[in-house]
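Question thread 4412

I'm putting together a teaching handout and wanted feedback from people who do this every day. The idea is simple: show students a protein as raw sequence, then show them the structure tokens that encode its fold, then repeat with a second protein so they can compare. Below is the first pair exactly as I plan to print it.
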Amino acid sequence: MEITEEQRERAETNRLVALAKRKALAEAAARRQDAWKLFKCRKVSPEHQPTFPKFKTPSSMDPFPKPQTPPFPEKFRVRLEICSPDSFSVSPLDVEGFAYPGEAACLEKLNDCLSDVIPSHYTQNHGGSKAGVYKLRDYDVVLRCLKNSKDIGYEEIPWGTLNVVERLSHSLIAGRWVPCRPEHLSDDKVNELIGKLPKMLLDALLPFQLEGVRFGLQRGGLCLIADEMGLGKTLQAIAIAYCFMNEGSILVVCPAVLRFSWAEELERWLPFCLPADIHLVFGHRDNPAHLTRCPRVVVISYTMLHRLRKSMLEREWAILIVDESHHIRCTKKSSEPEEIKVVLDVATKVKHIVLLSGTPSLSR
């Protein structure tokens, strides 16, 4: 179908209008871009240029010197830590806000500061750096020298830790067990208690297990047995508990899955204990307070000990055995779980406590 002449003229008019509109838009865009362009400055004639005095700078001087940051003063501190029953280590550490002089410089300065004390040897601390080791008898001299030094900060050993280690180190120095606390037992008393163990139990103890039992008895039944898994921590705890059974009942706190295992071990190594003498707590109905006679041994989980807190604290226990004790912390912070708090509350009322753990745990 052919278009008429009128339609052709109308189409041509629309095309010209569209082209004009497109050209106007392009020119407007160009003007907006030109508005941001920098104008070229006119050159000023030499006779109108202002003159400024010139300063000569040596060729070695930087015309634009960079600001120099003043160097941090050098300083370090030392941490004193127990590393054996008769020695302690002195480890250099950095101080926040000061430059660290370096390990060699720190040790050299320490040797000058502690010139009156000779280190027994050097060792590697937990951070991988070098540390000097000194005898525990020289601790007061080392601490006095550090206090007199103004350039070296120090972190001394907590007094409670130092007091316990110093007391127990007497046995190491003497080469034999020396009781140093009221609850400690002499070797004669320990031998007497070991001699009263059932023959089957005594014969089953391996030499290192017998040494563990002796270790616990020497300290009056207050000990931590941290042998690895499978080395007989349960057997050692039962042997220690037997020696104090005449003082009252035994309370065993363990994870819920280990209650039957503890009952089997107790029946195996304490044959005079009847099934009725070993009471397992599974719920509120098994509360020992409901029994007419307190059993010789009560085995309870951490959770049930928390739920029966009041009745368990009202009873008197001769010895407390805590299995998997790496869960226990002695901080008693408000954020600690209630199950941990109740174990600590029970422990404060018990004279003999044996902790068992084969799992390494970080210091908290």
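The second pair follows. I'd like the answer to focus on this one:
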Amino acid sequence: MNLFKRWRIVVMSDAKEGIRQFSLPKIIFFGFMAIFLTALLSVWLTIHIIESLSVENEELTASLGEVNTQLTEQDEQLQQYEKDRVAIQNRLDELHLLEEQLKDMISSLNPDRLAAFEDGPKGGEDFIQRDDVVIEQASLTKDFSGDYNMIREEVPTLVEEYEVAIEELSQVKEQLKQVPIYWPADTERITSEFGNRVDPFRQVEAFHSGLDLAGPWGTEIYATGDGVIEFSDRDDSYGLSIIINHENTYKTRYGHMARLNVEEGERVKQGDLIGLMGSTGRSTGVHLHYEIMHRGEVIDPYPYMTFIQRVLNE
């Protein structure tokens, strides 16, 4: 095909008009067609690319929406975690406060003392052991009984348990005010136990009805429980002595004192200062002879004196 040849185009109208002839080179025609087809192909490709990009844009938009949703959910979770963290911190602060309250209550019940038995001053009225004398041996014991989500669930339970413990301990504390569980003197030195011993004056085996605490002259002596002063005077071998009626089947005796700070009929509270340690009466040196009587019978004071200490250790 010769592209340089021409096509002759004849245009005819009605009879009045003449015949028009045009001459069109083949190369121009084919060039125009090539341009047209190329443009048509370009338009098609453009539309196809636009459609593809539109689909990808929709997919990206959907993915972006999912990401935004996830970010929103994570942000909400973080906000919830922060609220939970603050709530847990508040609960933990409450636990610390409750713990301090428990410690205060426990420490107020009895001094934290560890006693040891030593040789030293002794005294008091000793009794020759007889088979027909029954001594009550008393014993006082009482049993007070992961991950983030686990902590969040367990902390309220711990708070409730602490609150219950405080309430129970508060009730126990009230009940124990008239029980002689307070340490009777400002000294830890025990020189003679309750029970059989060698009488320091007669050098024979005899029954010791209390417990001896030794200390310097003037050591402070305290009421071991709430009660009324039943006796406050000199009492033969006990010297200057005090008896407190705790009005609940318990009585306590404090002997060999240097000074009496209370009078008969006076009401005292657990831990009140009632006198000073001395060596009056039947005594080998400065000490306190301390007795507990329960339903009229003398019992070993030591389990009562160490009651809170033993409960906490158990």
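Top answer:
Good format. For the second protein you could add a caption like this: Residues 112 and 314 are 15 Å apart (CA to CA). The two ends are 117 Å apart (CA to CA).
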